[in-house]
Amino acid sequence: MKAVIVSRHGERPVYGDFSEPQPAAGESRIAVSAAAISQLVKSWASGRHYSSSGEFPFVVGVDGVGRTDDGRRVYFVLPKAPNGSMAERTVVSSAQCIALPDDLDDVTAAAIANPGMSSWSPIRSAQHCRPAKPCWSTARPALRVASPCRSQNISAPGRSSPPAAIPKPWKRCRRLEPM
Known about the structure:
The protein is of the alpha+beta class. The chain contains three helices and eleven strands, in the order βββαβββββαβαββ.
């Protein structure tokens, strides 16, 4: 099977052959169709992230989108080491798979997970998810995440979209202009 592999600490990832992953009980094998390159992925690949196992070789990637052996289309996270998401196939705990809606394409689903979680985490914390409190987030998905929290003020930085582009349910949001 083809994959993006890190063979030794300090080496750049290379495209090559890696052993075919075999799922155990409670795991799903996934035929990967899209995987994102996040800062976490870069840090793991370089061996600089505190959560890196230090075991080599391994396949790069922490999340992605694909189809399980039974045909379900899913977003998945944290493949079983030494497997990663930047391979033709990977193995993940079945509990780490989320079914995807048909109207969300694979590339978008793989790409929005990291900024979505970056927005969701601070908003869902108790101090930020109260109707009287303002919410701040650094990613556009904050608007979708914060809206159910009924926050009175939701601020997210933007670069080029005019304020008129803010969807109607989120008109209480304000856009911060670049300096």
